[in-house]
Amino acid sequence: MRYIDVHCHLDGGHYGDISALIQRLKAAGVVKVVHSGVDVATSDFGRALADKYDCCYFTAGFHPTELRNYRAGDFNKLAELAKHPKCVAIGEIGLDYHYPDTNKSLQRRMFEEQLALADEASLPVVIHSRDCAEDMLSVIKENARLLKRGALLHCYSHSSEIAAELEKKGFYFSFGGTSTYSGSKKARRTIAFLNCGSILSETDSPYLSPKSMKGVFPNTPESIPEIVANMAEIRGVPAEEFSENIWTNAHALFEKL
């Protein structure tokens, strides 16, 4: 079987020898990985990975909780990175209201500006959305004209009802290690509910280890087969069939793959 991790963070020095990790991924059947940028530095790290390893692709963007790192001119740098042949999306971008000191107006403005950047670059977007469902839906509805190339809600954590509404707009949804736990009821309900053509696999490495690696850090894209097998079990389909569905879905959304 062939697998893909559409959302991971390979920076930070958590993995030791990256070349050794890449070899282990190939042995595990993880054929492609998408490194997700959270600011200019990590987006550029993804570019360097993509230049060095055939299996690596990347996204470029500013995560909502990393906006303290934003400097004048950074959008121009992201726009240049977006032109790279292996930059598959603008991301991860969005809203995160989890922390008490959140600047909601700044997050919303930067989210909308990066949606415009994606439209100008003719790229889809990868959206981070935590504890902000109402505002996230509001931004998406008000900026629908900027989402012509599609969108992924990564590590989806909202309700299946919201997923149904966004699926009608052509959105994709990715799920990671947390979905392997029986207590992740919303994620598991949504996996069972969605059409198979809307689902993708991710790890969000080095975070969110699956059940077999509970408490282990770092998580790596090597856990993708476990995540895919769990989603296939939830849906009652063979893992091989479901992994091929995910592969097709990823290439439909991320045309540069």
Which SSEs are present, and which pair or pack?
Blueprint: E1 3-8, H1 18-28, E2 30-36, H2 40-52, E3 56-60, H3 74-82, E4 87-96, H4 104-121, E5 125-130, H5 133-142, E6 151-153, H6 160-167, E7 172-175, H7 185-193, E8 199-201, H8 224-235, H9 239-253
Parallel strand pairs: 1-2, 2-3, 3-4, 4-5, 5-6, 6-7, 7-8
Task: Explain what you see.
This protein has a single domain, classed as TIM Barrel (Alpha-Beta Barrel), CATH 3.20.20.140. 41% of the residues lie in helices and 17% in strands. It has helices at residues 18-28, 40-52, 74-82, 104-121, 133-142, 160-167, 185-193, 224-235, 239-253; strands at residues 3-8, 30-36, 56-60, 87-96, 125-130, 151-153, 172-175, 199-201. Helix 2 (40-52) runs parallel beside helix 3 and helix 8 (224-235) crosses helix 9. The mean pLDDT is 97.
Give a concise summary:
This protein has helices spanning 18-28, 40-52, 74-82, 104-121, 133-142, 160-167, 185-193, 224-235, 239-253; strands at 3-8, 30-36, 56-60, 87-96, 125-130, 151-153, 172-175, 199-201. It is of the alpha/beta class.
Features:
257 residues; TIM Barrel; alpha/beta; single chain
Distance between the termini: 18 Å
Query: Largest sheet, described in full?
Result: 8 strands, parallel
What percentage of the residues does DSSP assign to strands (E)?
Answer: 15-25%
Strand order of the largest sheet: 1-2-3-4-5-6-7-8
The CATH architecture can be named as: Alpha-Beta Barrel
> Which fold name fills CATH's third level, the topology?
TIM Barrel
> What general outline do the C-alpha atoms trace?
globular
Instruction: Kindly state the percentage of residues in helix.
Output: 40-55%
- Work out the radius of gyration: 17 Å
Q: How much is the average pLDDT?
A: 97
The number of distinct helices, counting runs of at least 4 residues, comes to 9
The protein's oligomeric status is single chain
- Number of E-type strands: 8
Query: Can you tell me the CATH superfamily?
Result: Metal-dependent hydrolases
User: How many discrete structural domains?
Assistant: 1
